[in-house]
Automatic annotation (TrEMBL):
Keywords: Flavoprotein, FMN, Oxidoreductase. Pfam families: FMN_red. Residues 5-157 form the NADPH-dependent FMN reductase-like domain. Coiled coil: none annotated. It comes from Microlunatus kandeliicorticis. Its EC number is 1.5.1.38. The keyword Ligase does not apply. InterPro entries: CE1759_FMN_reduct, Flavoprotein-like_sf, FMN_Rdtase-like_dom, NAD(P)H-dep_FMN_reductase. This is FMN reductase. One of its GO terms (molecular function) is FMN reductase (NADPH) activity. The keyword Flavoprotein applies.
Length: 211
């Protein structure tokens, strides 16, 4: 069976450091799962194109199209990587809007699901966003957050033309967090690819009358 990893990335620019961190975490997780003999499929949920749909869903309580597909992707995942830019010492409004909409149809879908947390910002002063804002949010949703969260400031990527600094401390933290996520994912049963509504096989009315 193939493990499903959903990557939520809330970067507002294109390209963005948020997407860069999300991709690095996804690659490291894929490697960590492969080492454990697990097949893995990674689905990236880019929130920027879903911004208007998320606002509409917040107002109406209904989702459709790509937004519904994105929500379902996260709901059926065996593990989640969630990365947001930092605004006012917290996660972005787009990130929160998506999770608010997620609870409309998938209120308990993240309960017990391993989640790796990541955040980006211009300076390291905002690194506490992971513990002060993101971890409490996912704990409220019942998710199983991995011990190591990953923060990346602009300086962690190096200036233009310089070597990527992920070969140092950031890379080590990424690998450690990915290993923890992989360990939690492999310790859980593989999720079914289709949702079970709890009612089992439907028996037609005529058959019921004949019993």
């Amino acid at each position: 069976m193939t493990r499903q990893i959903a990557v939520i990335t809330a970067g507002l620019s294109e390209p963005s450091s948020t997407r860069l961190l999300a991709d690095r975490l996804a690659d490291a997780t894929r490697t960590a799962l492969a080492v454990r003999g697990e097949q893995v499929e990674v689905d990236v949920v880019e929130l920027r194109p879903l911004a208007h749909a998320a606002v509409d869903a917040t107002l109406t309580g209904f989702t459709s199209g790509p937004l519904t597909e994105a929500l379902d992707t996260v709901a059926r995942a065996d593990g989640v990587i969630a990365v947001t830019p930092t605004f006012q010492a917290s996660y972005s409004g787009l990130f929160k809007s998506f999770l608010d909409v997620f609870t409309i149809d998938h209120a308990d879908a993240l309960r017990g699901t391993p989640v790796l947390l990541g955040a980006t910002a211009g300076t390291a002063r905002h690194s506490l966003v992971l513990e002060s804002a993101m971890r409490p949010l996912f704990s409220y949703l019942g998710a199983l957050t991995v011990p190591t969260a990953v923060f990346a400031a602009s300086e962690d990527w190096g200036a233009a033309g310089q070597a990527d600094r992920t070969a140092g401390e950031l890379a080590s933290r990424i690998d450690r967090a990915a290993g923890e996520l992989a360990g939690l994912v492999t310790g859980r049963p593989v999720r079914a690819t289709t949702e079970d509504d709890g009612f089992g096989e439907v028996v037609d009315f005529a058959t019921l009358l004949s019993r």
